[in-house]
Specification:
Distance between the termini: 40 Å
Protein name: SnoaL-like domain-containing protein
Strand content: over 45%
Order of helices and strands: HHEEHEEEE
Radius of gyration: 15 Å
Largest sheet: 6 strands, mixed
Helix content: 25-40%
CATH architecture: Roll
Shape: globular
Organism: Mesorhabditis belari
Number of helices: 3
CATH topology: Nuclear Transport Factor 2, Chain: A
Number of domains: 1
Number of strands: 6
């Protein structure tokens, strides 16, 4: 499959996953169920720099809580995207910059593997390296 075709196959899932966000409502804890619906039950999140592995929805939810506690008003910019693989398993690599106003908070290199599951994709693996952290 060509890069454009892989991007066209995965982009709707990426947009649907990030479209709702997970900011906490007043007086309530953040809700990660929307994000988790796009993540395989046994998925792995690997922090390469810290040598930490998070497995499954429970541990990944704890990681998300840690991230959102750093700043729920952050904006995200994605660049240097790369789509490789085939229709059944897509490798998606990119650089993610998190900022608040003009202040860069984090720059992270991420690589994800997405497996086709019916009419959508589920993320099975996400490994990342934090290049810049100002938190």
């Amino acid at each position: 499959m060509l890069k454009k075709s892989l991007e066209a196959a995965l982009r709707p899932t990426l947009l649907a996953m990030t479209g709702k966000g997970c900011a906490p409502k007043e007086g309530k804890k953040p809700d990660f169920s929307h994000f988790l619906s796009y993540i395989d039950q046994n998925a792995l999140e690997i922090d390469v720099k810290e040598r930490k592995i998070y497995k499954g929805h429970q541990e990944i939810s704890e990681l998300f809580k840690e991230w959102i506690s750093c700043g729920s008003n952050w904006q995200c910019k994605v660049s240097n995207e790369s789509f490789t693989g085939g229709e059944e398993l897509i490798r998606y690599a990119y650089e993610m910059t998190l900022h608040e106003g003009n202040d860069t908070k984090m720059v992270i290199d991420k690589t994800q593997y997405w497996k086709k599951d019916g009419d959508k994709y589920l993320m099975e693996l996400d490994y990342y390296t934090t290049k810049i952290s100002n938190i």
